[in-house]
Write a structure and sequence with these properties.
The complex is a heterodimer. Chain A is an alpha+beta fold. Chain A has helices at residues 6-15, 18-49, 74-85, 129-133, 170-176, 245-260, 275-282, 284-318, 320-328, 333-370, 379-403, and strands at 59-66, 72-73, 90-96, 108-112, 118-125, 137-140, 149-152, 157-159, 164-169, 186-189, 195-202, 221-224, 226-231, 233-240, 271-274. The chains are: A alpha+beta, B alpha+beta.
Chain lengths: 414, 442
């Protein structure tokens, strides 16, 4: 196959510039919108694809247990856990500070790994929490019962002594220990001189700060062994028989009412929710945004395709006579077809240059006003490829019609 | 001018396929922009029309120096606004001539004295004439007086719904309700007061668009005295880690109030801002405030802006929609150019017969404007459909998305403007057709 000569194409483009200009302008705008919309879509969709590591089918979360007298003490917290364990169908119950998809009680740690990388990490703690959440321990060991810090919100708050063992997620271990093994490694607290020791690694655990799931930070979570001795808001994680989840949920509400009853803050009702419901609710805005961005992308592609096909069709129509002359002078059908494909390639390319600049300008503006990160560079060549493909696809119809023009057309007067 | 007008309109019916395509494309772009614009307009609306213009939120920085220990404060990304009660009272005392209110919004339980009926709801605890300042509609009775406030009298203003529920249809005025461990006398019944967004006390992390209105308004001192638990945003100094408990509040150690002032003129505003700055400076020099002196006086709209009450995604989507409209416009410009140039022959004849260029341009612009108008009309059902889609998302704020008459007029104006704008280039190109060349080829 021989490439069509570009010189005649260019001179033809120069002679009647309106149509190619409009076409290139369309491609430029489409390029600017598409690359940014796909980027936004990818950011919205990313966290939905992250494995949260949780055995959601079996999980119930208890929240909104607020003490009338300020704080729940250790005995109450333990009694509550016992009452929940006694509910038929419950396999495990753990008091918790930090629950997935919940932000009623949160705590963060800023840690530095041996390679100097730091991270602000969501902490999950509570005796038996790993089993209750159904997290898979990939390597290392679980906490022993004598290990741990105390969480005393009546006193010092979260007090993590030096040498406390922690369990990281795989993703966090890779981030903090980019080379070498995380197991047995030391993590420094970025303030002060305390350190933590990594004793285990779980496969996945999504953090609960749902606003910070982007940029690879979705699994910046760690488990701490801690005994919660006082807290104003009690949370429990319940692992139950998946077939009886609704029944267990109702029984758990009743058990909590029996156990805590009048000790609760009047006006606030305790909640027991299925984890799957919470997750669906928490991610609903994201799913809505994905639908919206997805439809915008589809509409932009369709509009651009229709535009290219329409303009090219008109332009072919204008040049029927010229095409006939070329055919009469010996150009094959293939030559004519290739001429139009090449022409489209050039015009789309001419639109892609300002389009890419516009895409970056829009992205810069978004970075300033909406705190979005920079558009990763692969988006531009990929976007260009997509638009080139779209252009070729859209022009095939008009080009085929042009190639079908019989040479005799040239001999007729228009 | 009538002739080109007629010609333009008649042009619509020719080559129906492209007319239709152009109308649909414009309608698509316009509907996208209008849906997003409607949502944005609804969200940026004034929460209390006629009242919020006078209200200003005051703040001085009484926080302790920043610690490297990160307590994981969920409020850390929101702009600070909380006051300690003694500080707020000191500032309020500096301006006895102004209406000011220090308030907190909390969840509490109201019950009938015997405990037979109770209702959980939100209530505003306020020092100062808050209900009058914030335009709480008074159905019957009165608000509490300054004297009652000074005396710590246990009086309350109930919302109509709360009064109906607690008193079971009987007259609530003069009756008593149990709040905390005290009995409050009902002195006033207020109508529905539920500003959207809930700007008067923004609990970080809580939606400002959802939730019921306030069920009760109580004077602050009386409420504290009756042990009403305060369940809302609070920020306590270090030595008061016990501030985690909701049952009690350390008045000297915790910040938990918002201070609002009613300021009519810019002079008043400037004077108030200056006195805030002076207060912060004096406290800092006295060693009470540990951070560099800082103060702020925000209007309601500034405060909403600072809290990003209108979600970023709504603005972002408006820009996306605008981009889509731009793309559709370029596309339609191409379609129109093709339509007009195809008719080069007849435009040429008009020119040869003496029509001026302006007349050809007018003809083309009328056709383009008509296509824009049709696009706008088609955009109306599409916009309604888009708003319905937004409403069923139910993000809390989305239920506000309704098209009103003003926005509909805007849509039509936008449609005509877009049509004409889109027609400009093709019309100019069509008017440049050389009549002689066209006529020769006939």
């Amino acid at each position: 196959m021989n490439l069509p000569p570009f010189r005649p194409i260019l001179s033809a483009l120069r002679r009647s510039p309106l149509m190619p200009w409009l076409l290139a302008a369309q491609v430029a705008i489409a390029c600017a919108i598409l690359s940014n919309a796909v980027f936004l879509l990818q950011r919205q969709a990313g966290p939905l694809l992250v494995d949260d590591g949780i055995d959601g089918e079996r999980l119930l979360l208890v929240d909104n247990l607020v003490s009338r007298n300020g704080l729940w003490d250790a005995a109450r917290i333990a009694a509550g856990a016992e009452a929940l364990r006694a509910v038929s169908g419950v396999e495990a119950a753990a008091p918790a500070l930090g629950l997935p998809m919940k932000q009623s009680m949160v705590f963060n740690l800023s840690l530095r790994g041996p390679a100097g990388t730091t991270a602000r990490i969501s902490g999950f703690t509570g005796r038996g929490l790993r089993q209750a959440l159904g997290l898979e321990l990939l390597r290392g060991r679980d906490f022993t019962s004598e290990e741990g810090a105390t969480i005393d919100l009546a006193g010092e708050g979260v007090d993590v002594p030096s040498g406390t063992p922690v369990i990281l997620t795989q993703a966090l271990a890779r981030h903090l220990f980019p080379e070498g093994d995380a197991l047995g490694g030391r993590l420094e607290q970025t303030d002060g001189d305390r350190h933590l020791v990594v004793v285990g690694i779980v496969r996945h655990l999504m953090r609960y700060e749902l606003g910070q799931l982007e940029d690879g930070k979705a699994e910046f979570s760690l488990l701490l062994p801690a005994r919660i001795v006082s807290t104003p808001v009690l949370n429990y994680a319940l692992r139950a028989d998946p077939a009886r989840l609704d029944e267990v949920k109702a029984a758990a509400v009743a058990a909590l009412e029996r156990e805590f009853g009048a000790m609760q803050m009047p006006g606030i009702a305790p909640r027991v929710d299925r984890y799957e419901d919470l997750r669906r609710e928490a991610f609903r805005p994201r799913r809505a945004a994905i639908w919206l961005l997805g439809s915008v992308i589809a509409v932009v592609l369709a509009v651009t395709g229709i535009g290219i096909a329409g303009l090219s069709g008109y332009w072919v129509e204008q040049r029927l006579r010229g095409i006939g002359i070329r055919r009469a002078l010996g150009a094959t059908r293939g030559d004519v077809l290739r001429h139009f494909l090449a022409e489209n390639f050039l015009v789309v390319g001419a639109g892609l240059v300002p389009g890419s600049i516009m895409a970056y300008a829009v992205n810069l503006w978004l970075m300033q006003h909406y705190a979005l990160p920079r558009l990763p560079w692969p988006y531009l060549p990929l976007g260009a490829l997509a638009l080139w493909a779209l252009g070729q696809f859209a022009v095939i119809g008009p080009a085929r019609r042009a190639a079908a023009v019989p040479p005799a057309v040239a001999t007729r007067s228009a | 001018m009538r002739y080109p007008f007629e010609l333009g309109l008649r042009g619509l019916s020719r080559d129906l396929r492209t007319t239709l395509l152009a109308v649909v494309l414009l309608a698509l772009g316009l509907a996208a922009v209008m849906s997003m614009l409607t949502l944005l307009a609804m969200l940026s609306g004034d929460p209390l029309p006629g009242i919020s213009g006078r209200l200003h939120l005051a703040w001085v920085d009484s926080r302790q120096p920043e610690r490297s220990t990160d307590s994981g404060d969920p409020d850390r990304d929101s702009p600070p606004f909380l006051w300690k009660l003694p500080d707020a009272e000191a500032v309020m005392a500096l301006h006895p001539q102004l209406r000011q209110a220090a308030l907190a919004s909390t969840i509490l339980q109201l019950s009938e004295p015997a405990g037979a009926r109770s209702r959980n709801g939100r209530a505003v605890l306020a020092q100062g004439p808050m209900p009058a300042m914030f335009g709480v509609p008074l159905k019957r009775g009165r608000f509490w007086t300054a004297q009652e406030e000074r005396d710590g009298a246990r009086v309350a203003v109930l919302s109509e719904a709360a009064a109906r529920e607690l008193f079971d249809g009987e007259d609530a005025l003069g009756g008593e309700v149990r709040i905390g461990n005290g009995l409050f006398r009902v002195v006033g019944i207020g109508g529905d007061w539920n500003p959207r967004p809930r700007f008067h006390f923004i609990n970080p992390g809580e939606s400002t668009w959802t939730g019921e209105g306030e069920s009760a308004f109580l004077p602050l001192r009386a409420a504290l005295d009756a042990g009403v638990p305060i369940i809302g945003s609070r920020q306590c100094d270090d030595e008061n880690a016990g501030g985690f408990g909701f049952d009690s509040i350390d008045l000297a150690g915790c910040r938990w109030l918002a201070l609002w002032a009613e300021l009519e003129t810019t002079d008043e505003r400037d004077a108030y801002a200056a006195s805030l700055a002076a207060f912060a400076q004096a406290r800092f020099e006295a060693g009470v405030f540990e951070r560099e002196p800082a103060s702020r006086l925000d209007t309601v709209s500034e405060w909403l802006e600072a809290n990003r009450v209108v979600p970023d995604s709504v603005r972002l989507n408006l820009w996306l929609a605008a981009g889509l409209l731009g793309l559709c416009m370029v596309n339609v410009a191409g379609l129109l150019a093709a339509r007009f140039l195809r008719r080069g022959g007849e435009l040429g004849i008009r020119r040869v017969l003496g029509a001026p260029r302006a007349s050809v341009i007018a003809q083309c612009l009328v056709e383009a404007g008509a296509i824009g108008t049709l696009g706008g009309l088609l955009a109306l059902p599409l916009t309604l459909f888009g708003l319905w889609l937004i409403r069923i998302q139910n993000h809390g704020y989305t239920e506000l998305a309704h098209l009103d008459g003003r926005l509909f007029l805007l849509l039509l104006a936008l449609a005509v403007a877009v049509g004409v704008l889109v027609g400009l280039l093709p019309a100019w190109r069509a008017a440049r057709i050389e009549p002689v060349l066209q006529v020769k080829s006939l």
